[in-house]
Specification:
Shape: elongated
Number of helices: 7
Order of helices and strands: HHEEEEEHEEHHEHHEE
CATH class of the largest domain: Mainly Beta
Structural class: alpha+beta
Number of domains: 2
Radius of gyration: 25 Å
CATH architecture of the largest domain: Sandwich
Strand content: 15-25%
Helix content: 40-55%
Strand order of the largest sheet: 2-6-4-5
Length: 211
DNA sequence: ACATTAAGTGATT
DNA sequence: AATCACTTAATGT
């Protein structure tokens, strides 16, 4: 199968004919085995990778050599981090590694400005990629907030306990939810969790604070 | 006993 | 974490 057809098959529904043509002539398609690393932090990025099949991961390695996965890229996805490098030959902030055997389209970075200028569907493609990342980002934000909510509830109870000068706080889950602008269900669940941890004891309309 | 309101749960997004 | 859709438990009348 020639390059043009392969690209058309994977990206045909989001990229225009002309753009595919350009990608086919200027880019190259290459197979990589699982575990292959094609970009390392500090490398000068000359080609932007777009995943055609398989999965790649973008990781950041810290000073201790610990790998932290930033995100995975599946087919039709390109690394947003490499977009930002754009025309300027900048150094990579990340490592780019194959999570599975994968096929990539590698496109010269110095031609990207041209793509952005000439092809609306390329701009759309870039936005779409940014969007995917943003969604992921919001998801992780949610989990971060989630992890903090139980602490917020505990703090809230301690504050109430101090203010009312009693360990037995008369309050409903709904009221706590309103004050912390979350839902009653969430409060109930986290309170239950705190109860299991032995930090509080639950009653109807009352919460006893240990400690 | 019955209705009302608070709290608990599982499944989904 | 939020929301939905129930279920269950506690209380008031």
């Amino acid at each position: 199968m020639d390059k043009q057809h392969k690209l058309e098959k994977v990206l045909g529904d989001i990229l225009s004919e002309k753009l595919l043509e350009n990608l086919a002539t200027n880019g190259r398609i290459e197979q990589f085995e699982e575990g292959t690393q094609i970009i390392s932090r500090g490398d000068e990025v000359k080609e932007i990778p777009i995943v055609l099949s398989g999965t790649a991961k973008v990781v950041r390695t810290d000073d201790n050599g610990e790998e932290h996965i930033l995100f995975y890229l599946n087919e039709k996805e390109a690394c947003t981090a490499t977009f930002s490098i754009c025309s300027k030959a900048k150094k990579s902030e990340i490592d780019f590694i194959m999570e599975t055997d994968a096929e990539l389209l590698l496109y010269p970075v110095h031609l990207m400005d041209y793509l952005t200028k000439e092809f609306p569907s390329w701009r759309y493609f870039v936005c779409r990629n940014y969007n995917n990342r943003m969604k992921e980002f919001l998801d992780t934000m949610d989990t971060i907030v989630f992890m903090k909510m139980d602490q917020r509830i505990l703090k809230y109870l301690e504050k109430a306990s101090k203010a009312l000068n009693t360990k037995m706080i008369t309050i409903t889950h709904q009221e706590i939810a309103n004050d912390l602008s979350t839902s009653r269900v969430v409060v109930s669940r986290l309170l239950k969790q705190l109860e299991h941890e032995g930090k509080i004891k639950l009653y109807r309309n009352r919460i006893e604070l240990f400690q």
